[in-house]
Amino acid sequence: MKYKPVFLRTENQLNKLLKRQKRTGEQLTILFISLWDNWCSDLVSKIKKNSDGAPIYIVDSFSMPHAFVIFNSFKLPHLVKLKKGNVSSEDYLPNIYKVLKVSSD
After folding, report:
1. pTM strictly above 0.70
2. Are the CB atoms for 57 and 8 separated by under 8 Å?
């Protein structure tokens, strides 16, 4: 599945998304990153190349540091997928590339 990156700027935007997901049960994909990190920057640029499909919400550690507490994000990048009460979390970079179906070269 291809993803369209949507950058969240405030924690209020993230909270609204999480409340809507809890109410509707829709699938939600969130990527926690730091744009100061080269690995995260490369991943975001590769996601931008395939910018059609389902939205992937990108949360930057610089603009939203308190949002990382929600899913215990200690390592970056950190991918979180929410689907009808099920939360899957991945912080191992090769697995993130595999889940997002992005080439690692």
Report:
1. yes
2. yes
Locus of tokens 């999480």: 18
Q: Which residues contact 36 (CB under 8 A, 6 or more apart)?
A: 62
pLDDT in tens, 69-91: 888 888 899 999 999 889 999 99
How many other C-beta atoms lie within 10 A of the C-beta of residue 103?
A: 8
Q: How far apart are CA 70 and CA 5, in angstroms?
A: 20
User: What's the token pair of residue 45?
Assistant: 């640029």
With beta carbons less than 8 A apart as the criterion, state whether 58 and 46 touch: no
CA pseudo-torsion sign 69, 75, 79, 83: negative
Which class for 41: exposed (0-12), middle (13-18), buried (19 or more C-beta within 10 A)? middle
